[in-house]
Amino acid sequence: MSSYYGAQFLGTTSEGSTTPSPAPIRFQRKASTGSAPPVPPPAVPPPESSGDEAEAPTPTTPRLDSSLQKQKTFGSVSSTSTTTVASVTPLAREPTRVSTLKREEKSKKLRQERMERERQELEEQRTSAAPQKESQEQHITLGERTSYVEEPISAQTTLERKAEKALVRRITNEMQLATTGAFMHPIAIHQKHPVGAYTPGVYRIRSLRFVEAALRRTLWALGKFLANRPIFAAILPILCFLSALSLPILSRNLIFVDMPFAHIFGAKSEIVTNGLGGLKAQEFNSTNPMFSCMNWRDPNHFAVLLRTSSLRDTILRKDAVLAYTALKKKLDHFPVEKREYLQQCSTECEIDKDMVDRIVKKSPQVALTYPETFVSMSKDSTNLTRVYLGATIGGVEIDTDGAISSATSLFMNFELKQELGGKEHDAWFRHFDDQILLTTAPNISIMSWSPENFRARVIETIELEYWQIPICAAILLGFCVVFSFGLNSYESKPCIGLMIFVTLVISSLTGFSMQFYRNLPIDPLIYPICVGILWLFQLHYSWSRYSSAAVHPTEKIAFILAHDAPGIVASAAVVVVTFLLMGLLMTNSHMVSSFIGIASSIAILVIFAILFISIFIFFGGRREARGVKWYQIFKTGDTQFTAPQLASFDSSALFGLHDRLIDTRPRATRAIGAFLIGRTVRYPIVFFCTAYLIFAAFGCSQTSVDIKEEYFLPQKSAEAAFIENYREQFGKTTRFLELVIDGSVEYHDRDVQNSIFEILDYAINEGFATRSANWLSEFTKFEKGSIYDVNPDTFVPVVNLVFLPSEPYRKFASDVVMDRFQTQIVKSRMFLELTPKGFNERVSLIETLLTKASSTHLPLSVSLPSTMSLRHDITVLSSGLYAFGIALVSLFIASLLLLGQPALTFLLLFTSIAVLVETIGYSYFWTVPINMVTLTMALAGNALTCVIVIAFCYSYLMSGKSQIRAGIRIQYTFQATLIPVLFACIIPVLTFIPILSVDVPLVYHIFKIIVLNATASLIHYLLFLPNLMLLFSEHFSFGCSSLNCAECCCDMDDESSIYYIPTGGRPIHPDGIYTQHAAYAYSVPKINAPPPHYLAIGAPPTPSANRVGEIYGQYAVRESSRRPRRHSESSQGGDVGATPRRDRDSRRRRHRRAVSRDSEIYEDLPSPRPATTSSRSNSPRHPHRPTYDSRQASRPQAYHYEEGAPQWRPYIQPSPYQMYYPGGGAAYGQTRR
Questions:
Q1: Higher confidence at residue 870 or residue 1203?
Q2: For 706-716, b where at least 16 C-beta lie within 10 A, e where not — what string?
Q3: Helices (H), 14-157
Q4: Distance (Å, rounded) from C-alpha 861 to C-alpha 275?
Q5: InterPro entries, per this entry (predicted)?
């Protein structure tokens, strides 16, 4: 194909000199609208006849000879753009007939006359061009011309010549793409599509069409506004932040640090019931001495523990026992006045307490059995009383007779009255501390427990965690500033790093201030920091990523916001809606405050990212474009920027600008992406991912719920040491389960008795309990050996008057509650001594017991005093599943509405589920218990997971038409998101390290959850997402290479050309190299009526009707069944009639083109087919004095005209289309080896 579109006529004289041809033909914009011309325009003359042809009789002959028509169609001797007229030599042979001689002489004469006439015309044209050049006439622009024939060479400016040259070259490229696309669609029907990493994928994301268009247009206008009015753009985010701070400022009196237990566990009772109980019955008189445990969260419980310094020593010696009794007496009789501070129990209970004190006092002289001992209540030793010592003496070793051989600890506890005021409570606490300090004994350590000390230590821990936040902020500041430096001083922008840090701090303060009341956890707010690092550094690095061509800074920031920011806005909307719903629908205060804090932090974060950070990105990029280094504050630099290329928003031009600006040079991030999807590592990745998921599922099935008081205390604190020693010395006697039948039950009924016994026997038979302490079973034994007649009328009197007062069963007296008339039992309790299995699996055991009780209509309630919160243990998993279910439903609906890709929704849901399972599963291997705090952190980590998945998929889908293969798109995705994702997963983990100095187990657990969540998200980003994306590109809706691509929801974008290109014509090289592989198709716009200023170009005649039917028959059938395509904002649909809105939009576009047509310099469009030769060889050139080489072979004419042809269409000789895979090998035009 000629390098210039048009026919350049060159003539030669008999002496061999070259004469210039008439002025070449240029393409002009059509001035009027209308349908495609069925015949060539009158200003375009038909091609000249060749020298071998006979003279046409008249120029208006309607038909040509068929042979002559064939010669004109397929290129005769003089049908090229550079027509060569050579001198005709006489014939070599002698004539044999007179007619032959006359015909030859006539042809020779005609040729000579024609050559002489052409020589004269060229000479006249050359002489007339000289004065025209001197007169410097005004050059007529393309929009003002009405003729398709080029005027003589005028004195146009260099800028105008370059503009026309670039415009013609752009028309050439787009016509070539459209013609190639029309060929590729039907040919791909018969070919097998390529599979693997280089399968075509989706061109762009599809959400709600009007929402997406409005969002991009708004962000484009916002980018222009903040570049021109940066101060006004920064006012809105600052006002949002100040409004968020106003809430805690106005309620500052309510802000204080307190214990978080009520916030975490709630205010409900720790007794779990099956809901069959009636009204609240009377409480038990006292605790059972055999089953008592320290209540750590009760503000009225105080305790003292005496323990020997050596394990070989015994506490039951005289000095230790005297110290124990003296201290207990001083604390029991405070104050000296008659008013008592301690809670008083029943008479029998007080007698037992005094008996225990006496036994302990005499323990150095007498032998005691354990855990129960028998003492005489009379002088003759005939009346023996059973006394329980297991709650007072700990660390006991017994001999073969069951007697105590040694003991290591003594325990005493005190319970204050509930009605005590604050002054009395403080007075008791001061007296308690003074007596502990005054009491000493050799080789004895005295440890105390008081609610005030416990509360002070927990609050001190929380405050210490707050004091570590400035250190964490300093580390975060260092990372932000360091990673904002580039390869040189021009690309370095430390100011942007500083503003990123300020934005992250503002986001955290906003999330913290949304919950102005106390007990707000600060640990979940680390995830908005992770999200902010990803978004802000992604925007920061996008400036350098779009550096392949020079562009005005204002237009570049508007392009970045319009092209990249919709993904950030969409992901922010998904995350904010999800966590807001979770916070509104949950009942646990800790989860509610955490989720609402995260939602508010991310909401203010996206506002600052768009309106605040973008301003400093623009400032930094503008200084870089001026050639100013980052430390040259007062230097202005070069302010002559490239002229803007887009006068207004246009989606087609926006995505075309992306393809021109994207920097696709080889770099490490793209190499990592290519490596991770390579065939050599694909199977190891699949094996690793499978094993990773299997181990996570196993760990998730083995994890257990656990929360303890010592998790909130420093490991070296006195309170933590007291709890540890108490569990060590008395742990075996405190692991019991209390079952309360709350209501009037017919205990004398055999069926009721069997139901109760079945519940207790189940726990023992399954290994959850060792034995049961049950008054009902003891009564049945008593009933069998008793002389009393037990019936429904005498059951309650026998139990109350005969059974409970007897000595062997007096220990059950506090376990039965009668009504005030002593006629029925309204409440009773029983106990199960748990095994380690029963204690670890207490949740499933309690749920089973409650289910069995409900099936027999027993009003059963259960409590476990040895745990910190039984209700928490039972409800934490159900609350977590409920919250996660809300998150999944919200993610499903919001992602479909805002992103419009079912496969993306699947990836989002799969990754969210997998990351949560992996976080919980591997926490089991890292000895992290699951409780409300750690589970909330794991659920909050879903914010980071969702943002990473959406960022990956959005970058993949928006990689542009120049990167049409899935493998190349994944490389682009890694180029756009790898470094921000690494920062988001690593920097917050390193920032959290100073908080570990608090030395609290719960802080370590939270840190491990953060590490596990960040690791799981990073593994999915590196290994799962690329290969899953390839899977969808090959087989599912992401892979739009199949014939029914228009039917899938993620359809290809119909980016129609702004030039009028009719649909008639034939494909190029139907039997050439294009038929060996399926090709990526650019859709051709279906336009019947050309828009204004569009160029109509004639099409070459088709070689044969059969070939046209063979190629376009199936294509027409497929096009008729395809649903209508959705056009972009700038596309013109020819099938739709004119409307006022369409006419108004057309006038606006004509006005914009008229303003920018003459001053805008177009750059070359990047072709999706890398040519093997220079682009200059196929681009039109401005005419200069052309020369002719007689050795050059004749080439076919660029445009052919056939009278009677239905349409005009360009005939373009394409360059070979080649796609190179990484590692070598071409997909088109070459055979892979």
A1: 870
A2: bbbebbbbbee
A3: 66-74, 98-135
A4: 8
A5: Patched_domain-protein (IPR051697)
Residue 985: count of CB within 10 angstroms of its CB: 24
Residues contacting 457, CB < 8 A, separation 6+: 713, 714, 717, 719
Q: How far apart are CA 464 and CA 1043, in angstroms?
A: 64
Asked if residue 924 lies in contact with residue 699, where contact means CB atoms within 8 angstroms, the answer is yes
pTM, two decimals, is 0.70
Q: How far apart are CA 791 and CA 777, in angstroms?
A: 16
Contact indicator for 526, 988 with CB cutoff of 8 Å: yes
Helix, strand and coil content of the chain, in percent to the nearest 5, comes to 50, 5, 40
Residue 165: the pLDDT is: 72
pLDDT at 1106 over 60: no
d(CA 915, CA 892): 16
Which distant-in-sequence residues (6+ apart) come within 8 Å of 740 by Cβ? 271, 827, 828, 829, 860, 861, 862, 863
Cβ-based neighbours of 17, under 8 Å, separated by 6 or more = none
For residues 845 and 860, what is the distance between their CA atoms, to the nearest angstrom? 14
What pLDDT, on the 0 to 100 scale, is given for residue 1142?
A: 58
CB of 226 closer than 8 Å to CB of 233: yes
pLDDT digit string, tens, across residues 1074-1094: 333 333 333 334 434 444 444
d(CA 373, CA 386): 6
Distance of CA 1045 to the CA centre of its chain: 26
Q: Are 706 and 990 in contact (CB under 8 A)?
A: no
Measured CA to CA, the distance from residue 1030 to residue 194 in angstroms comes to 12
| Token digits of residue 800 | 């109350």
| Cβ–Cβ < 8 Å for 799, 779 | yes
Alpha helices in 810-869 (DSSP H): 836-840, 842-855
Region of residue 420 (phi > 0: left; psi between -120 and 50: alpha; otherwise: beta):
beta
The pair of structure tokens assigned to 386 is: 């059973």
DSSP string over 1150-1199? HHHHHHHTTT--PPPPPPSS--SS-GGGGS----------TTSPP---S-
d(CA 432, CA 447): 12
Parallel, antiparallel or unpaired: strands 860-863 and 736-742: antiparallel
The secondary structure of 114-152 as a DSSP string is: HHHHHHHHHHHHHHHHHHHHHHTPPPPPGGG---SSPPS
State the DSSP H helix or E strand holding residue 790, giving kind and residue range, or none if neither.
none
| 161: Cβ contacts below 8 Å, ≥ 6 apart | 1182
Between the alpha carbon of residue 596 and those of residues 525, 586, 1086, the distances in Å are 10, 11, 50
* SS3 of residue 368 by DSSP: coil
Q: How confident is the model at residue 156 (pLDDT cuts 50, 70, 90)?
A: low
Q: How many helices (H) and strands (E) does the chain have?
A: 35, 18
What residues are paired with 304 via a beta bridge? 412, 448
The four Cα atoms 746, 748, 754, 760 give a dihedral, to 10 degrees, of 80
pLDDT over 50 at 1201, yes or no: no
User: Residue 1203 contacts by C-beta under 8 Å, 6 or more apart in sequence?
Assistant: 39, 46, 62, 63, 64
> What is the rounded average pLDDT for all residues in the chain?
74
Could you give the angle at the alpha carbon of 1097 between the alpha carbons of 160 and 46, nearest 5°?
105
- The DSSP 8-state label assigned to residue 1127 in this structure reads B
pLDDT average, residue stretch 1032-1050: 45
Angle at 1056 between CA 1053 and CA 1062, to 5 degrees: 135
- Of 958, 1067, 1039, nearest to 181 by C-alpha is 1067
Distance CA 401, CA 416 (A): 39
In the predicted structure, residue 861 carries a pLDDT above the cut 80: yes
Q: Are 1078 and 194 spatial neighbours (Cβ–Cβ below 8 Å)?
A: yes
Label residue 852 exposed, middle or buried (CB < 10 Å: 0-12, 13-18, 19+): middle
b (16+ CB within 10 A) / e for 870-891: bbbbbbbeebbebbbebbbebb
